[in-house]
Design goal:
The complex is a heterodimer.
Chain A: E1 2-13, E2 20-31, E3 35-39, H1 46-53, E4 61-66, E5 69-70, H2 76-86, E6 87-90, H3 102-112, H4 117-130, H5 146-159, E7 164-168, H6 176-193, E8 196-200, H7 204-209, E9 212-217, E10 220-226
Parallel strand pairs in A: 3-8, 3-9, 6-7, 7-8
Antiparallel strand pairs in A: 1-2, 1-4, 4-5, 9-10
Helix pairs in contact in A: 3-4, 3-5, 4-5, 5-6
Chain B: H1 2-10, H2 14-54, E1 57-61, H3 62-67, H4 77-85, E2 90-104, E3 109-117, H5 119-123, E4 132-135, E5 145-149, H6 150-156, E6 163-169, E7 175-186, H7 191-196, E8 197-201, H8 202-208, E9 217-222, H9 228-238, E10 242-246, H10 247-250, H11 252-290, H12 292-301, H13 305-341, E11 343-344, H14 349-353, E12 360-361, H15 369-393, H16 397-400
Parallel strand pairs in B: 3-8, 5-7
Antiparallel strand pairs in B: 1-9, 1-10, 2-3, 2-6, 2-9, 4-7, 5-8, 6-7, 11-12
Classes of the chains: A alpha/beta, B alpha+beta.
Chain lengths: 235, 404
């Protein structure tokens, strides 16, 4: 089932001075349930592409459809609302709100969605339980390891019941054990709940586990490799 | 949860928050104390004016108000007095004869207002009896007696028991001369009053004027200051053919001062808060700049910019209110302590007496001042927060989340 579709999407920076085509006429389709890694050297356009898919940036040309809706024409307020209800973000480490506990971090996104207090609390505990942190719900981020913080970030991303999760170099600041553990968790969520994950990464560990690898170079898709054997059984 | 977020954000950099809170506390408490001193001065001015001469309410004939002519007496003043005596709010009632005249000693002379009083009644209305610094408040073996101010005594170069001559017009326009002996010398907070008002027993004046009892001025003192407005309204209706005035009408210059004092003090506090506002803005701006990545993440996650704006405003208000309340508490404590001990300004007696202000000053602030100050703090905080908040909502999430 088609979840995301990019049609001739380009993003050009500094159009008036020295134009930089960060994303150059990209056509891409990502289906529901994919576990996809966008890879490429620095400056290849991974982050820009991820920003465009995540509604953090607007394309200079082309159209981006998510669940059949063209988000490239959205205004800023509409994009904020779109991100809130459709996308779960997992950034590099240190992306939690430091003055909130693990539970409050997960609850906060639901507060923005105007979910009732009781429902928020229940779901926050459930999601933290799902990522293996039930006994750390009242810990502040500084009291958690990098891997645990990223697990909280995953719980937060899932708490908003998004259409898909965008993870920007989620293992970049983690040691190999924590990184593998985080990927196990994401893979499990993908497998059990058919949750779509899209990564931007340099990390071999992530690339090895991805079911689809989109390789960028100079803003264009250089390779698009699908490893059928890695696909979850229910996809 | 937004409030929790804002509150906890304040304490992320404890040292920085503590510095700005200390600045607000110091600025506000000093401002409050200075305001309380000014208010105390004003209260001293009112109280001394009321205690010394005005009383709370005065009644005259309508014509006496304009020209202060001897014949403009209060019609049937005794029945007026009897009616007023029935009011439960009255704590003192005095009938006065007021004559403008001259007072001469062998060396000098001066224009004076001669207040013919019943000493016992007068002592329940004004405090002249307590302000005698030499001699007695009447009831001496000297006759006829006069009580004069220290300043006039100096001007006329007279002492206790000295003879002075009073001259004034009688009902027919003839000049009456009469010798009096100085029985007492008083000193009030007002050197002008001390120089221009003398007290004699009103029976002496009736005799000199060869007249039955009459009155120009009925002075009332009430049980409490708060009763003035209601009693004034009541008496104004009860005696429509007489001029009834409360202290505010009798001393309009004090009333004007009273009306602008609050504005002056709020303006004064406004200046202090305005100065503090820049410090608060600086603190919040630093706080926003330090959190660019975090705010970017909040926007990326889907937090509306209006809520980001609100969060910064709440943080600033909370920060300011912590300092504000600390300032209010410190201010109240200082005002309470100094208000009970008083500030001794006896070194400036000469200067203060020009303005009818007591030499011991008791700082005081009305309770109504505090909620207004709290609102002013909140208002200042909102103003201070605007620039940092605008800075925060202008962040682009795509770049902000990659700022380290």
């Amino acid at each position: 089932m088609k979840l995301i579709e990019l049609t001739e999407v380009s993003k050009i920076y500094d159009e008036t001075i020295v134009p930089v085509r960060a994303v150059d006429n990209v056509n891409l389709q990502i289906d529901k349930g994919e576990f996809t890694a966008i890879v490429g050297p620095s400056g290849s356009g991974k982050t820009t592409l991820l920003n465009l898919i995540g509604g953090l940036d607007k394309p200079t040309a082309g159209k981006i459809f998510v669940d059949g809706t063209d988000i490239s024409t959205y205004k800023e307020d509409e994009l904020i609302n779109f991100r809130l209800h459709h996308i779960g973000f997992v950034f590099q480490a240190y992306n939690l709100i430091p003055v909130f506990t693990a539970k409050e971090n997960v609850e906060f996104i639901m507060l923005l969605q105007n979910i009732s207090r009781d429902e928020r609390e229940k779901r926050a505990i459930d999601f933290l339980d799902a990522v293996g942190l039930k006994d750390r719900i009242n810990n502040f981020p500084t009291e958690l390891s990098g891997g645990q913080q990223q697990r909280v970030a995953v719980a937060r991303a899932l708490a908003s019941t998004p259409s898909f999760v965008l993870a920007d170099e989620p293992t970049a600041n983690l040691d190999s054990v924590s990184a593998e553990s985080l990927l196990d968790l994401m893979e499990e969520l993908n497998f059990k709940h058919n949750m779509t994950f899209i990564f931007s990464t340099h990390d071999e560990k992530v690339i090895r586990r991805a079911h689809r690898i989109i390789q960028l170079r100079d803003g264009k898709i250089e390779k698009d490799i699908t490893s059928k054997s890695n696909y979850p059984i229910n996809s | 949860m937004l409030f929790i977020l804002a509150w906890r954000n304040i304490w992320r950099n404890k040292k920085r928050s503590a510095i700005i809170i200390a600045a607000i506390t110091a600025g506000l408490s000093c401002g409050l104390f200075a305001s309380a001193v000014m208010y105390g001065m004003y209260e001293s001015l009112i109280n001394s004016t009321i205690d010394r001469e005005l009383g709370h309410i005065q009644i005259h004939s309508l014509k006496f108000e304009d020209e202060k002519i001897l014949s403009d007496t209060i019609p049937e003043f005794k029945s007026v007095l009897n009616e007023i005596k029935l009011l439960p709010e009255i704590s003192g009632l005095s009938s006065r004869v007021i004559i403008e005249g001259m007072c001469s000693s062998p060396t000098s002379s001066s224009g004076v207002r001669i207040a013919g009083i019943n000493p016992e009644e007068e002592s329940k209305v004004t405090t002249i009896r307590n302000l005698i610094i030499e001699g007695n408040y009447f009831n001496t073996d000297l006759s006829p007696e006069v009580v004069i101010g220290k300043k006039l005594a100096e001007k006329l170069d007279v002492k206790l028991k000295s003879k002075i001559v009073l001259s004034f017009q009688d009902f027919e326009g003839n000049i009456v001369y009469a010798a009096f002996r100085v029985a007492g010398i008083y000193r009030t907070e007002s050197s002008l009053f001390d120089q221009s008002v003398i007290f004699v027993n009103q029976n002496e004046l009736y005799g000199l004027l060869n007249s039955k009892e009459f009155s120009h001025e009925i002075v009332l003192r009430l049980n409490s200051f708060e009763q003035v407005d209601s009693v004034f309204t009541k008496l104004s209706k009860q005696f429509p053919m007489l001029s009834v005035k409360d202290w505010k009408l009798l001393a309009p210059e004090i009333k004007i001062y009273y009306e602008i004092l609050d504005i002056q003090l709020y303006f004064f506090m406004g200046i202090i808060l305005f100065a503090l506002l820049f410090g608060i803005t600086n603190t919040m701006l630093m706080s926003v700049i330090e959190r660019i990545r975090e705010i970017g993440i909040l926007i990326a996650l889907g937090m509306k910019r209006s809520k980001i704006f609100l969060m910064i405003i709440i943080e600033t208000i909370a920060l300011s209110l912590v300092g504000g309340f600390a300032g209010l508490i410190v201010g109240v404590i200082i005002i309470g302590i100094v208000g009970s001990t008083g500030i001794n300004l006896s070194a400036f007696t000469e200067g203060l007496s020009q303005f009818s202000i007591a030499t011991v000053l008791y700082p005081v602030l009305p309770l109504s001042f505090y909620p207004v100050i709290t609102l002013m703090i909140i208002f200042s905080a909102i103003i201070a927060a605007i620039y940092p908040a605008i800075k925060a909502i202008k962040l682009k999430p795509a770049t902000a989340i990659r700022t380290y």
